[in-house]
From TrEMBL, chains A, B:
The keyword Manganese applies. One of its GO terms (cellular component) is cytoplasm. It comes from Loigolactobacillus rennini DSM 20253. It catalyses: diphosphate + H2O = 2 phosphate + H(+). The chain holds residues 1 to 202 of 316 of the full protein. This is Probable manganese-dependent inorganic pyrophosphatase. It is an enzyme of class 3 (hydrolase). Keywords: Hydrolase, Manganese, Metal-binding. Signal peptide: none annotated. The keyword Glycosyltransferase does not apply.
Amino acid sequence: MLFFMLKQLVFGHKNPDTDAIVAAIAFSHLENQLGENTEPVALGKPNDETKFVLAHFKQQAPRVVTSVADEVKAVMLVDHNEAQQSVADRDKVQVTKVVDHHRIANFDTSKPLYYRAEPVGCTSTIITKLYHENQVEIPEKIAGLMLSAIISDTLLLKSPTTTDDDKKVVQELAEIAHIDANQYGVEELRAGTNVDDKSAAD
Amino acid sequence: MLFFMLKQLVFGHKNPDTDAIVAAIAFSHLENQLGENTEPVALGKPNDETKFVLAHFKQQAPRVVTSVADEVKAVMLVDHNEAQQSVADRDKVQVTKVVDHHRIANFDTSKPLYYRAEPVGCTSTIITKLYHENQVEIPEKIAGLMLSAIISDTLLLKSPTTTDDDKKVVQELAEIAHIDANQYGVEELRAGTNVDDKSAAD
Ligand SMILES: [Mn+2]
Ligand SMILES: [Mn+2]
Ligand SMILES: [Mn+2]
Ligand SMILES: [Mn+2]
């Protein structure tokens, strides 16, 4: 008798920000290390800030999907839970896991699931903890990507949603990624402001 | 300026079973160890099985409440999330934490929160993990109570909802509580069957 893990897709919300894209990549990697068979995808193309982040860490943008039930029976959600922010045909698949830092609303399942929410500044902060809890090493590239997501969501640890957990994790990820978080963070946030480089040079 | 932790109530579902009562006691204890100010309460009186469990471990039954907004601004839920299983005036308070092993339905918050659900046999299995993650020692009495909740929810690890996590945790808690889980478990489940002792003696 043969057993195999059914493939699952992992994705963040529509109109993805850096956390939505990066948390899908990082959580999919973690789940695969733990024996699951997952692929990170996105519900839209990366914005300018996220493009900068992906290029900086030489990471391909996840495949964009607009429906999931045609290819999988189950999915994992990151950085969102509300139905209207998710894939259109989500009611046709099982949600097996959620990792998020938002309020819970318009979210219903018919079966028990893994749900991990914490009131912190960024989903990637929680995913960093999950790597530790599962004793999986964080690869340098994933550390850089998650660092970028926290910088984005917390505006370089300045937003009112920033917690001590976010600050601690930023320090740790910066070390793993060999990045100066402040210098890189300013570049990253500037990339998201959509200012034309030529005119901004003055 | 003085800071103090506002008191929060911790409770399981209406018509409480052993897990609903015990998970409130155990999670409240853990949260208080971590600096919160919580009191475990119940949305109903203990059933016969739970009475046996509380008596066995010399634990007082939690105070029964039918509303919460008159005494606190925030609450933590265990072993349930659906509004119709919860306290009547829950929409008048903030839910700050949930630990549960059921599907999510009829649950909405206006703010981010801590939500920990896992598809395991018992809430007390998850709370045991939370003690470990937070490096808080499980007192002998709380170990015995949580063991009883897992025995109850999984019918002594025989229910189809039983997972490897539940089995591992039962072993660990039995050791801490100095209990023979099988022998004690049969007694506990028998106490819940409401059979009159005299007639059952034959
Ligand atoms: Mn986001
Ligand atoms: Mn986010
Ligand atoms: Mn219950
Ligand atoms: Mn339960």
